[in-house]
Amino acid sequence: PPPPAPRIPPEKQTARIAVEKRKKGKLVTVVRGLPAEGNDLPELLTKLKNHCGAGGTLKDEELEIQGDQLERVRGCLTQIGFRVK
Fold first, then answer.
1. Phi, psi values for residue 48, rounded to 5°
2. Computed from CA positions of residues 37, 43, 47, 53, in that sequence, does the dihedral angle turn out positive or negative?
3. Domains and CATH numbers, the chain
4. Residues ≥6 apart with Cβ < 8 Å to 29
5. Closest by Cα among 59, 68, 60, 80 to 15
6. How far is the C-alpha of 81 from the C-alpha of 23, rounded, in Å?
7. pLDDT per residue of the chain (85 residues) written in tens, 0 to 9
8. Are 21 and 27 in contact (CB under 8 A)?
9. H-helix or E-strand containing 27?
10. For residue 52, what are the contacts with CB-CB under 8 A and spacing of at least 6?
């Protein structure tokens, strides 16, 4: 099997966070811009869900957290070391 992709340090990555409105007026916080090959996205999603106290999912290299969790997600990602926009 091919060797696993090397981890990219969080300091060299920029996460883009947005709050989007979904059907029935539900809000979801979306984190984009983090490549799957340089990160453990399922582990990061678990950390964000626990920090926010909300559910979430991983879709096509996008982390989705239920609700308007913009400030909580920004704080958690900054604490881990990611640059945030």
1. -65, -40
2. positive
3. 10-84 (3.30.780.10)
4. 17, 18, 19, 52, 64, 65, 66, 67, 68, 69, 70, 73
5. 80
6. 33
7. 777 767 889 899 999 999 999 999 999 999 999 998 888 999 999 999 999 999 999 999 999 999 999 999 999 999 999 999 9
8. yes
9. strand 27-32
10. 29, 65, 67, 69, 72, 73, 76
